[in-house]
Design a protein that fits this description.
The protein has 147 residues and is an alpha+beta fold. The protein contains 4 helices and 5 strands; from the N terminus they run βββββαααα. It is extended.
């Protein structure tokens, strides 16, 4: 039969911490990460819950809609909606502005990575050539300095 070791010491409840910090909650800012979705790459805020798998999202630049949680990447940003379910567009816009969500997103490593990828995607052929020449010059300077 099975042998289960006896627990000798129980941890106090106060010492137990939650392993996750990015919970699905009202006011949580998410990034739409499914490329087939028309909202792909946009930041949205959870304003209400539909069921266990779908939420109502809104943003000043989009129309309020229901979206599956599978299509969302949860960020660490949270907007204080004062526990108000389904706030108006004006209330949400004011809360987003007060929390400086766009600024925090642009300053985060995730936001800068996406912005850098978008900038590279929009380069022309000549721009890519200029980047290549600059990289060659930089590597030559580094090699010269290390010798």
């Amino acid at each position: 039969f099975f042998f289960f070791p006896k627990r000798t010491k129980k941890r106090p409840l106060a010492a137990v911490t939650m392993p996750f910090t990015r919970n699905i909650e009202l006011g949580r800012v998410c990034l739409v990460n499914l490329a087939a979705d028309p909202l792909y790459g946009k930041l949205v805020t959870i304003v209400d819950f539909v069921d266990m798998n779908r939420v109502l999202v809104d943003s000043p630049s989009i129309q309020r809609c229901v979206i599956s949680l599978r299509r969302l990447a949860v960020t660490s940003l949270v907007v204080d909606l004062a526990e108000e379910k389904s706030p108006s567009k004006e209330t949400l816009a004011a809360a987003l502005k007060a929390a400086d969500v766009e600024g925090k997103w642009a300053a985060s490593s995730w936001g800068t990575k996406i912005a850098k990828a978008a900038a590279r995607k929009n380069l022309t052929d000549f721009d890519r050539y200029k980047v290549m020449v600059a990289r060659v010059k930089r590597s030559a300077l580094i090699k010269k300095a290390l010798k």
